[in-house]
Amino acid sequence: MQIVVTLDCVDTEAQANFWLAALAPLDYRRGFHGPPYLSLVGPAPAPTLLLQHVPEPKQGKNRMHLDLDFGAADLAPEVDRLERLGAARLSEELSEHGFRWIVVADPEGNEFCVFNPPNSTNVAE
Questions:
Q1: Residue 102: pLDDT above 60?
Q2: What is the pLDDT averaged over residues 30-41?
Q3: Which stretches make up the Glyoxalase-like domain (predicted)?
Q4: Phi, psi (5° rounding) for residue 12?
Q5: What is the mean pLDDT of residues 33-56?
Q6: Burial code of 16-43, b = ≥16 C-beta within 10 A, e = fewer?
Q7: Residue 14 per-residue DSSP state
Q8: Cα–Cα distance for residue pair 40/49, rounded to 1 Å
Q9: Rounded to the nearest 5 degrees, what angle is found at the Cα of 24, between the Cα atoms of 94 and 3?
């Protein structure tokens, strides 16, 4: 089985550049490119991120989003890195059931979370 996450976007090239830089620690690269699609693939079993060109900008809250664990105990520096790439921080650090996360949006406003799971070896005691 393969999981492909499709992200609607107005500018697939700009979004590809952002997401390749954002996912750099995970070694993503460009895959299939045939308009209106551009895929970003990571090492197995990482899901493929399929960018799909649509004419309208995002409206409203995402019903599905990505949660990214970069393995960092301190989430703020990772979110700062993403902001330098064009992301926008949408929340302060939140926590629930041992999970810690910060809500972020990509340059076209698609929300995602940078998180650290409970009982992670990345969490500073």
A1: yes
A2: 96
A3: 5-115
A4: -65, -35
A5: 95
A6: bebbeebbeeeebeeeeeeeeebbbbee
A7: H
A8: 5
A9: 75
